[in-house]
Amino acid sequence: MSKELFSSIDIEAPASLVWEQLVDFGAFSMWNPFITSAEGPVEVGGRLALRMQPAVGSAITLRPTVVEVVEGRRLRWRGRFGIPGLFDADHLFVVEPQGDAGSRLVQQERFSGLFVPFLRRSLDRGTLPAFHAMNAALKERAEMANAAHG
Questions:
Q1: For the chain, how many structural domains are there in total?
Q2: Which of 49, 79, 91, 106 could form a disulfide with 64 if both were Cys (CB 3.0 to 4.6 A apart)?
């Protein structure tokens, strides 16, 4: 059983600037309503500590492993709750250039495992709106930084 969440937003800032904001984990507590704290190396094999605040429900700390980094373009990590196969998550960020001065941020996550049918509604009600909130906050932050540079 699996479930996929998808959220994207167009940003009036170059992809390189959006990427800088996305991987600046130390600043997350200042602007990110979803991942309110993030620590760890942005490198394949890096173990992260992420404090996630869904739109509905309590915050949780996850410790996923980075499985893909394409500098300036893609960041992907995998995590799980408990033992493999119960509730596994594969989270992907993609930063796509849109012309010279714009970009699109895509955030998606694929959940799989035995618990997915029981958590489907909470993913739609709590996690997906948190994706949208994070994307909107990143858009605002990147566009303000772009205006300051311009």
A1: 1
A2: 79
Q: Give the pLDDT confidence of 118-141 residue by residue, as tens digits.
A: 999 999 999 999 999 999 999 999
Q: What is the CATH number of the domain that holds 94?
A: 3.30.530.20
Supply the range of the domain harboring residue 102. Answer: 2-24+67-149
In a domain, 34, yes or no: no
Q: Which residues pair with 105 in a beta bridge?
A: 9, 95
Say if strands 2-11 and 102-112 run parallel, antiparallel, or are unpaired.
antiparallel
How would you classify residue 80: left for phi > 0, otherwise alpha for psi between -120 and 50, otherwise beta? beta
Q: Which of 34, 8, 3, 2 is nearest to 139 (CA)?
A: 8
6 lies in some domain: yes
pLDDT tens digits for 18-71? 999 999 999 999 999 999 999 999 999 999 999 999 998 899 999 999 999 999
Question: What does the block give as tokens for 63?
Answer: 């410790």
Whether residue 47 lies inside any domain: the answer is: no
8 Å CB contact between 111 and 3: yes
